[in-house]
Every structure is written in structure tokens, then in C-alpha cells.
Specification:
This protein is of the alpha/beta class. Helices cover about 35% and strands about 25% of the residues. A hairpin with a 2-residue loop joins β12 and β13. Pfam families: GATase_6, SIS.
Length: about 600
């Protein structure tokens, strides 16, 4: 994933574009670039390897213009360097293109253009676009872009400048997000509303196969294939610019962890229905008769969203008594799965744009399946493609690693499980019990976060481990999976997660004093089984950090977590392990908000 931002209007464009890039840097940060149409005509371009601050230091003081596009990159084709950074120009340096996505047939297009005498400057697939547009003989920029895209196979979100058409920016979308921002006699474009909300909250989201022309006082949208006008009207987004500030915290991750109590309150607000001991989820578009006909639930996500889906599947089985499981969307869509008309499919994505999840949704819809979405971003591609769903209302999440969105997604699944359970066989008493547990969550989360200093002290003991193991049984296993992922992402310490029951089937061979184990040990009906696993580790001189409702004697340290209902305990048990990963990364002086080799939302394969 990469970040795109563009502007056309009356204001000096360079500061606006640089500000937008800084807000989008979590989507890619190995190189950046900017192109503007200068007042004297022609294009002016600056590019730099590294962070946006490196680009900003290279932009000349006299870099005036009122129209421009910019890009911050997460490399897919070609190493991070000045040349491979976007924007890419055509041979005559009249066309500048910024591109998110992957052009699948770039090698063939590149070979053909090279045979025609085109010399490529970069190793990227994206440069193909600038040459295709530059070589088009069409009369308008819109037609030049449409003609070029007819040759392209793959995914793209693009913004195009042309020196001969300085009064417009042309953009197009296919599989990678593009949003327009409507201002007062000025227009913006970006790959994420984060770049726009400090200037406008009137947003137009392009659909796949759609293009737009932006002028200072107007915009129009139309289809890529036929050029037919489409009716896209602005919508008001609820997120504000302040949501993207650090708010006095050292990092976005720390801020977002500490927003979890408020975020969980937000996902619950207005949804609990005490009269019938259930919840209201009007966006599901699933009536009671349809809900009772469901024979299986399949949850699809990637990374953290997949782990949230694992928690959700267990809740649905426990509360609704419907067989449920979670699977990585990236695997599901390639194994020619059997699509059952009695199965409810649920797509999970923080951004709502994750390519593997979106592609799985599109394949399921093609085969006639009912698909719901559990997403954070209103109006995102997955939200629009699915039959209904639940918004998790976590608010903007800028840190590359997900914390509050993971927590809110698991709470959203608890709401869905309760809703399905009460339609089926879950008793009123159990419904009330779960509702009371949900209401306790915000304060219990706040209590965990208030104890971060103790976890900070513990982190120093684990910062120099070369490898760590995370274990949990049944409800605790998805928590262990997510905790090990967090540690890997931001500390670069190797970590593995196993079901505690699987230790004796191989992983015990790894146990030694230098390999600590983090154990999820809730006070549930499996407590004694979990304690037996701790005995096995101690017998092999392993160090143990337990996350539990009570002090575990066999553990070297125990992080105490307030107890909720057994079905909801996994929501709480993951939060101290977010803090553990965070403070371990601080101890190692890692770049926590921007881990190496990663980007926030992956909209390429």
C-alpha cells in the first residue's frame, strides 16, 4: 500500500501536499515524491528515498504552483530509491503519474514500449502508465488516461498531471482506493481520507472502474470503460483532523491503545436492547428467519483481522451454537472453496480495502453467497461490496500495527454472536449476563491501561530474548496468536504461538531458560489444564509470564487482568500483551509506528 494526495485550487500546493503525505506516511514510508504544474508552465518534480521529511528537505523554497500530486511509497517493484519513487514521468516529461497497486502485465507492456524505443528510468511497474499516457494521441487528458488503462491488467489507484492540461487532475480507481475532497473552489484527491479531513469533510469515494476529473471549482465522475457520466455525490465523514494527532502521546500506538476504553464504549453505544436481552444491528440486513437458516459461519480476514475472526468464531459457536471458523482470506480464495448457500460469510478488515479480503468477497458474491462485512471505515470497498455488516467505530488508527481496531472488532463479534444466539437458543438469562459483561468492558480496559507501569518494568526482562513462545488453550489461543504477531511486528523478536495442548507434540523441544513463554491462563474450566502446561515448561527450566485472573505460582511473573464473562475474557486478555510488545519495542528503540518492511493496509497481493 502507498499514499496518494493531490490538490487543485488557489493555494500554494507544495505545503498542502507535504502535509497530506505526512498524514499518509503510515501507508508507506520508504520513499516519497511530489510533482506540480509550475506557474511558468511544465512540470516540476522532487523525489527522495526515505521518509517524507527527507523529501521536504529537498523541496526548493521557490517551488510555486497551485496544482500538484504527491506519493509516499511502500515498495513492491524496484528497490526504495530516488529513481523508483513516484511520481513517474513520460519521455517528454509532460505527464506525471502516482500509482497505488500492481500492474500484472507490466513486463509485457514494458517489453513492447522498449521495442518502440521508450527508455525506462525506473524498475517499477508504475512507470509503464506514464509512458502509455504520454504516447497516446487522444485529444483530451481524460481520453489519454482511458486509452492507456485499456491496456492495463491489475489494480490501480492513480492520479495524473499533464503539462498541456494544467487546469485539471485526472484520477482512476480499480482495486485501490481513491477519494475526492470537495472544498470551496478547490479540490483534493487522496488514497485515504486522513489526508483530507483537515481541509474538508465532504468526501466522494470512487468505485472500481471509475474515473474523475478534478478542476478547481468542479469535479465530474465517469466510467473508465465507456466514459459515461456517473452520479457520485459528496458524503460528510465523521472523523476530524484532531483524530489524527498524537494528543500528547509519544507514539500513535500508545495513543490508540489508550483510546480503547472510549472506542469500545462507542461500538456498544445505541446497540444494546435490554428489553429482549439482545442487541440491535440494523446494518446486517439479515432478518430472523434468514438468521435461523444459517448452518455455518465462515470468517475471512488477514493478519490481525484474521485473529479477531478466530475470537469471533469461538463466540458465535459458544453463544449461537452455529459451527464457525476463521481462515486467512489470502488462502481461502486460492483453494477453490466449496461455497454453501447455508453458510454466512463474514469479511473482516480494518481499512475495508484489504485486497485479499476484497477479492474473496467478490469471488463469494460471484458464486451467490451471502457476505457480511465487519469493517472500521465507512464507505470502504468491502462495506460497499457486502450485503450488510457491522461498523466497529474504532476511529482512525494511524499506527501500522492495529490495537484498538482489533479490540473493537472482537467486541463487534460479541454483539453479532449475542444477536444470533438470542434469535436461536440463547436464554434470556445468558443474554443479560453477556450484556452486563459488555457494559463492564470499558472500565476494565481502562483499569488494565492504568497498570501499564508494571508492564513497562517487565518489558525490560524480555527485550533481549532472541525468541519467545506464546501459548493459550481454546479461547486463549487466538489471543496468543495476536500477541505473538504484535511482538514480531514492532520489536522484530521472533515469536511463535501454539495451542497449549500442542506443547508436548513438539514445541517443548524449544524450551530453555533463554526462550521465555507467555501463557494465557484465564480462570475458566480449563484452568487446571493450563496449569499443567506451565508445569511442563518449568520442568524444562523455562521462564514464564502468565496473563491471568489470579497469580500463577508456576509463573515467574503474572500480569493480572480483571475477570469478565468467560466468553468475553479474550477481549481483555490481549490488551496487556499489546502493552508488553509496545514497551519491549521502546526498550529496543524501535520505530514503533512505522515498523520496517510493513505498511498499514495492504491493497496489493
Amino acid at each position: 500500500m502507498c499514499g496518494i494526495v493531490g490538490y487543485i485550487g488557489k493555494r500554494d500546493v507544495a505545503p498542502l501536499l507535504l502535509e497530506g503525505l505526512q498524514r499518509l506516511e503510515y501507508r508507506g514510508y520508504d520513499s516519497a515524491g511530489i510533482a506540480i504544474t509550475g506557474k511558468a508552465g511544465g512540470l516540476k518534480t522532487v523525489k527522495a528515498k526515505g521518509r517524507v521529511r527527507e523529501l521536504e528537505s529537498r523541496v526548493p523554497k521557490r517551488f510555486a504552483g497551485t496544482t500538484g500530486i504527491a506519493h509516499t511509497r511502500w515498495a513492491t517493484h524496484g528497490a526504495p530509491n530516488d529513481v523508483n519513487a513516484h511520481p513517474h514521468l513520460d519521455a517528454e516529461e509532460k505527464v506525471a503519474v502516482v500509482h497505488n497497486g500492481i500492474i500484472d502485465n507490466a513486463p509485457e507492456l514494458r517489453a513492447k514500449l522498449t521495442a518502440d524505443g521508450v527508455e525506462f528510468a525506473s524498475d517499477t511497474d508504475s512507470e509503464v502508465l506514464s509512458h502509455l499516457i504520454g504516447r497516446s494521441q487522444a485529444a483530451t487528458l481524460e481520453e489519454k488516461v482511458r486509452e492507456a488503462l485499456r491496456h492495463v491488467e491489475g489494480t490501480y489507484g492513480i492520479a495524473v498531471l499533464h503539462a498541456d492540461f494544467p487546469d485539471r487532475i485526472v484520477v482512476a480507481r480499480n482495486g485501490s482506493p481513491v477519494v475526492l475532497g470537495v472544498g470551496e473552489k478547490e479540490m483534493f484527491v487522496a488514497s485515504d481520507i486522513a489526508a483530507l479531513v483537515s481541509h474538508t469533510r465532504q468526501i466522494v469515494t470512487l468505485d472500481d472502474g471509475e474515473m474523475a476529473t478534478l478542476k478547481a471549482d468542479d469535479y465530474r465522475t465517469y466510467t473508465t470503460r465507456e466514459g459515461s457520466r456517473t452520479a457520485q455525490s459528496p458524503e460528510t465523514v465523521e472523523w476530524e483532523a484532531a483524530s489524527y494527532d498524537m494528543g500528547g502521546h509519544d507514539t500513535y500506538m500508545h495513543k490508540e491503545m489508550h483510546e480503547q476504553a472510549e472506542a469500545v464504549d462507542r461500538v456498544l453505544r445505541g446497540r444494546i436492547e435490554d428489553r429482549f436481552a439482545t442487541v440491535r444491528l440494523g446494518g446486517l440486513n439479515l432478518d430472523a428467519r434468514e438468521a435461523r437458516s444459517i448452518r455455518r459461519v465462515k470468517i475471512l480476514g488477514c493478519g490481525t483481522s484474521y485473529h479477531a475472526g478466530m475470537v469471533g468464531a469461538q463466540m458465535i459457536e459458544e453463544l449461537a451454537r452455529i459451527p464457525a471458523d476463521a481462515e486467512p482470506a489470502s488462502e481461502f480464495r486460492y483453494r477453490n472453496p466449496v461455497v454453501d448457500p447455508d453458510t454466512l460469510y463474514i469479511a473482516v478488515s480494518q481499512s475495508g480495502e484489504t485486497y485479499d479480503v476484497l477479492a474473496a468477497v467478490q469471488e463469494l458474491k460471484r458464486k451467490g453467497a451471502r457476505v457480511l462485512g465487519v469493517v472500521n471505515v465507512v464507505g470502504s470497498a468491502i462495506a460497499r461490496e457486502t450485503d450488510g455488516g457491522i461498523y466497529v467505530h474504532a476511529g482512525p488508527e494511524v499506527c501500522v500495527v492495529s490495537t484498538k481496531c482489533f479490540t473493537n472488532t472482537t467486541v463487534a463479534f460479541a454483539l453479532l454472536a449475542l444477536h444470533l444466539g438470542r434469535i436461536r437458543d440463547l436464554s434470556v438469562a445468558d443474554g443479560k449476563r453477556i450484556i452486563e459483561g459488555l457494559r463492564r468492558l470499558p472500565e476494565q480496559i481502562a483499569e488494565i491501561l492504568r497498570g501499564e507501569d508494571e508492564i513497562r518494568k517487565l518489558a525490560g526482562e524480555f527485550a533481549h530474548a532472541s525468541s519467545m513462545m506464546f501459548i493459550g488453550r481454546v479461547r486463549g489461543y487466538p489471543v496468543a496468536r495476536e500477541a505473538s504477531l504484535k511482538l514480531k511486528e514492532i520489536t522484530y523478536i521472533h515469536a511463535e504461538a501454539y495451542p497449549a495442548s500442542e506443547l508436548k507434540h513438539g514445541p517443548l523441544a524449544l524450551i530453555e531458560p533463554d526462550m521465555p513463554t507467555v501463557a494465557i491462563v484465564p480462570s475458566d474450566d480449563l484452568l487446571e489444564k493450563n496449569r499443567a502446561a506451565l508445569e511442563e515448561i518449568k520442568a524444562r527450566s523455562g521462564r514464564i509470564l502468565a496473563v491471568s485472573h489470579a497469580v500463577q505460582e508456576k509463573a515467574d511473573h503474572t500480569i493480572l487482568v480483571p475477570q469478565n464473562e468467560p466468553e468475553l475474557d479474550p477481549i481483555l486478555m490481549g490488551i496487556p500483551l499489546q502493552l508488553l510488545a509496545y514497551f519491549t519495542a521502546k526498550e529496543l528503540d524501535r520505530d514503533i509506528d512505522k515498523p520496517r518492511n510493513l505498511a498499514k493496509s495492504v491493497t496489493v497481493e
